[in-house]
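can u pls check wat happens w/ aspartic acid
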Amino acid sequence: MKFTTSNIITSSAKAPDTSILIIYTGGTLGMVHNDKGSLIPFDFASIMDHIPSLRKLELNITVLSFDNPIDSSNVNPGHWELLGQMIYENYSEYDGFVVLHGTDTMAFTASAISFMLENLSKPVIFTGAQLPISAPRSDARENLITSLEIASTKINGKPMVPEVAIYFDSVLLRGNRSKKVESVHFDAFESEN
Ligand code: ASP
């Protein structure tokens, strides 16, 4: 699997103390419309142009994006293993992790990763979007900004959410307790019972 790496410092005022690794596996969130109206993968190096309010978060962000984004209906256990390995290998370098994933099988991947990463003490927040990041009223912006906030927030020096979770449309759910319930409206995930 090949990746493109982009390094983004969201604060211009001072060097941020918090580092977050974003892994873009595929899915609607990281897509943009080209001049002909077709969807093509987004270049995460230009993320500040699409979400200027990220400047307020003061983060040192690294994005690893799959060069061939995977529609999540094609994600298999080999991809879960790869993702688990990527988080494991980068674990000490970052304060938190945000995984951008297609919504169709996000709950399955989040669940598998939650069982792989034993003794986790840092946030691994999965999110995605119902509309591409280039769409005027895309949910990608809010879902990504809040996931970054959750992945980077600490209380008394300790991560506030040290577990694998899905954040989507103002709802934060345990990764292994979530289900996709909606393919059109923004409120796509819930936790039964
Ligand atoms: N089919 C896409 C996927 O699951 C839809 C999405 O991104 O939500 O990868």
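Residues 3-190 form a domain with the Rossmann fold fold (CATH 3.40.50.1170).
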